[in-house]
Amino acid sequence: MSGCRNPQRIGEEVFWPPATRRDTLRLTGISQVFLPPPSTKKAPFVFMGETEDTFTGRWRAGWATNFALGGNNVQFVTQQLIAVDSVILEMFIASGYGNFSVPMRVRVERLTQPLSTIQSYTTDVAFLTDGRNLAISGRDSLYFTTLSPGSYRIPLDTSLGRAILTLPPSALTGEQIFQQAFPGLFITAEPIVAGEKAAIYTVFPRSASTVLRLFYREVVQGREAPQRYDFFITDSCVWAYSLVRQPGQTLRDELERDSAQWSQRLLVSGGVPVGIRFQANGWESLMRRPILAAQLIWESDSATSQSYSPFYPRPSSLVLYADTTDEVAGAAWGFGEFNGTALIWDLTQPVQEIALGRRTLPTHFYMWLSGRTYTLQRWVAAGSASSKPPYLIVTSAEP
Question: Computed from CA positions of residues 94, 100, 101, 102, in that sequence, does the dihedral angle turn out positive or negative?
């Protein structure tokens, strides 16, 4: 021990660090996975607008919702309705994907069919409306120089407020009866100049800032009195969105038509989710070994890595699942982080558990966007025939 002069390194001269070994597990069976249209009923976020993504195509989105009455046996007009001053639809816009500096016109239509509490609405649903736009012309535009999350107001035709306020008392006895009498609204947005590459906005329907407000005047005890009634979207309501993609000559279409393209480029995108499936071979070399580090490394496609912009940004991370296409917490292997053009997963813990026999050996892995259904972002990766194929590198200690 006399040789251990540095107290921070006591014992290193006696117990040498163990020798290490590095194994590289190659990924095989790489292919694209295209999920069917997902259910959007009571989704935490909904979409509206239009945009055109270079890799995934042109998208059009809109969302439908009914509103909560706020009680039973409600009476809007106690004696006499004088006038409806304004009807305001407020929406909490959480984010935007695409060129949100392109002006868009919001369109609001009344639903003609109540939303079902038992039907599962997928992204290809067509909502039935009366076709009349209630948004007031000149006050229905939506565009930003810098998009900030928040509530945005769209004034509507006051005829909607009068129709609601003059419903018979029998329609106000309960929430379900009210939603039969007033099925709700369908909200879309389209570029003011048709065909422009605009944006699709993400709306938070359950926010307290997403609400239909009625401002009106009535006679109360012989006097004119201003009144206000707020219709919120509560858990008792039904809401859903449609998300329609126009096929074309994009990378997504090429990959769907020709699986040979998968050897060169691979796509991960959201909305109607597209992911990557693969296997890793060589696990037997890791059994019963102390795992020091494990990293899955996947390079981006250099030909497309320059295509990201503030309007079409690269996703912040991708999530890895084992043996399921569902978002199951127990199957998640973690989030990949970007380092330059490479995406890197730290898989030390799950690989150690496999080496010790504490975790089932996975048959397949699946790579998705995190929150894949509620984002339109995409990432293009190098394929399995790339000069930099993906691999899993594992560092272990020698016994």
Answer: negative
pLDDT at residue 91 is higher than 60: yes
Same domain, 25 and 77: no
Same domain, 82 and 57: yes
Boundaries of domain holding 300: 14-35+273-397
Would residue 41 count as lying in a domain? Answer: no
Domain count, the chain: 2
Percentage of residues in the chain having pLDDT higher than 90: 63
Rounded CA separation 232/151 (Å): 14
Q: Do residue 60 and residue 164 come from a single domain?
A: yes
CA gap 160, 19 in Å, rounded: 76
What pLDDT sits at residue 219?
Answer: 83
Same domain, 194 and 316: no
* Domain termination site, one of 246, 263, 282: 246
The mean of the pLDDT values for the chain is 90
Whether pLDDT at 285 is above 60: yes
pLDDT tens-digit readout, 181-228? 999 999 999 999 988 999 999 999 999 999 999 999 988 777 888 989
Same domain, 239 and 379: no
Task: Please report the sign of the dihedral spanned by the C-alpha atoms of residue 230, residue 236, residue 237, residue 239.
Answer: positive
Tell me if 260 is assigned to some domain.
no
User: CA 337 to CA 346: how far, in whole Å?
Assistant: 9
Q: What is the pLDDT of residue 243?
A: 97
Do the domain assignments include residue 209?
yes
Examine residue 151 and state whether it is found in any structural domain, yes or no. yes
Looking at residue 326, its amino acid is D
**pTM for the predicted model, two decimal places:** 0.88
- Return d(Cα 111, Cα 128) in angstroms, integer: 6
Distance CA 65, CA 154 (A): 16
Q: What confidence tens digit (pLDDT) does each residue in 144-164 have?
A: 988 999 999 999 999 999 999
**Do residues 28 and 59 share a domain?**
no
Q: Residues 301, 356: one domain?
A: yes
Average pLDDT of span 233-240: 95
